[in-house]
Amino acid sequence: MSDRHSAKRPPRPDDRPIVVAAEGSRDDRVRPFSLERVPVRGRIVRLGPMLDEILALHGYPEAIAGQLARLSALAALLGSMLKTKGRVTVQARGQADAPLSFMVADYRAPDGPGEAAGLRAYAAFDEAAAARLDEDADLVAWCGSRGDLAFTLESGPKAERWQGIVPLVDGDLARAAEHYFEQSEQIPTRLTLAAGRRGTALAGWRAGGLLIQHMPTGGNEEREADTDGWPRVQMLFETLRADELLDPVLDDDALLWRLFHEEGVRVFAPVPLAHRCSCSRDKVCAVVAELSSDEREHLIGEDGAISVRCQFCGRAYHLDPSDFATVEQGG
Q1: Distances from the Cα of 64 to the Cαs of 171, 202, 207, 229, in angstroms?
Q2: What is the pLDDT of residues 30-72, one digit of tens each?
Q3: Together in a domain, 97 and 207
């Protein structure tokens, strides 16, 4: 028997559910799941072609691309927990003199059943300072000792906004996110993230993440009596290797089965992900309208138009300055 399942535990009842692989692509989706023997819920995400599309827009250095890939996986995991339409934004923020000014990943819930959730990401950094850092530098090295990780949630019919901020614990996104759950929701949570290229340096980027949470037993006497349940699941969680999360051949269902089948894995419909930017001409116009006339003047190009480019997707918008002059006079 492998080390992964060498822990002593009761035999698995015959009626425990078994994961059955679904049809279609296993990349670019979040798969929710729960365990039957213990009160644990979780999610696993695997990012592939969509992540390549996001990272290719800006030609990031390898080290920053890796950090942004992990942040994208984290945003997908957290965003997929939304029960209503909304948005989850995760942003690592550097101090003033840090090599990494900020990096942000933004998840937008699907518009309807069966539709894909939108994911986008962007990083701003000092190229000269970034070139001096090792590729395996942690987030404290990138963001500085005063850097932090901000989680922003917008949900509900009125798009109510809530934000939580935590330090960059151990310079690691996963540890910082665990700290966030410990402080804000007081739910025991374990999380791991991985990112990298498969094969050569020219191969595509991949990222993955696994999150598990120990939920209340709900008065279930059998679960309450199993005091070793959460430690046992954590032990299995810790056997997961980064190369397993990134393996394109090992799909998410098979990986969950490999990790937790003796605890009884029940999977739920996956949330498909698509690279989707929420920028629009109307939103850009609203932002430009808030600028002073001097600030707008600096945006006017040689062609006489105000030029604005979306940081996330790179889309360029060309606006007529006279439209804003009219608004200013009317106000």
Answers
A1: 14, 16, 13, 38
A2: 999 999 989 999 999 999 999 999 999 998 999 999 999 999 9
A3: yes
